[in-house]
Amino acid sequence: MIASHTHGGVGPIPTVIPEPAHYQEASHDGVRTLWVVFVLMVLASAGFALLSWNIPVSRRIFHIITTLTTLISAIAYFAMASGHASAYNCTSKADHHKHLPDTYHDVCRQVLWARYVDWALTFPLIIFELFIFAGIDGAHTLLAVVANLIMVLAGLFSAFGHVHTAQKWGWFAISAIAYLFVIWHVAVQGTRVGSNRDNGVTKLFGSLSAYVAVIWAIYLVVWGVSAGAKKTSVDTEIIIYAVLDVLSKAFFGVWLLFASRKHRDTTPEVGGYWSHGFGGEGRIRLAQNGDDA
Known about the structure:
Blueprint: E1 2-5, E2 13-16, E3 22-24, H1 28-51, H2 61-81, E4 87-97, E5 100-111, H3 114-134, H4 138-159, H5 166-194, H6 199-228, H7 234-262, H8 273-276
Parallel strand pairs: 3-5
Antiparallel strand pairs: 1-2, 4-5
Helix pairs in contact: 1-2, 1-7, 2-3, 2-7, 3-4, 3-5, 4-5, 5-6, 6-7
């Protein structure tokens, strides 16, 4: 913006007034989408909990994990829809003026960081479900879960980085490498272990793991276009992530639960403390007055 003013007999002197900060944030459509997904996740959580009522506690592990996955996501969506759990990542943009010095204004994009908290908690649960389904050992499960956490946290750090800098895209590269590490564990270890199982179970695990791999790859692409390059609006980003979250959590949970009912041998029976709590022999006895220490 250019203005002019005079000093006595001197001609008008042009003055450059910097542009105000521009804010890229969710509009009514984006907020409404957040509320819709919150309701869907609550309904999914209630449905998964109801499905577990006629299942013995020792065989509820998939029901409990899927319920926790959608419940955590519902809490995150409530935080975002109610106007909390967000911050702004501001970058300075130059405005060029003919025959006048450049001015700068801030472009601030809303970052809904609650979704990264959601992913950091729920994506490892999904990995855990897949590995239990395939019967993969605990060592490889732990490595995949940690890699999954790195993938999500690196994406969060990158979301608050400056555009067109090595820092921002360096974090994105770390996130992509961690994703490939997770997929390698799922593909290699899952195939190796699954080859010893029933043919139907092996095919089902292959379908579930391929589905998750594709969905998570789309997450990375959407992140690169939206939070990374800032080529989409915040509303578009919210809507796409909403669809992906429903597919990767609610729909995946439905698929896994009904598949595990069909192939009952894929659901491990967990006894001990998980099903019965501490037994009498495991309780701590406190000495009474007069008893021997």
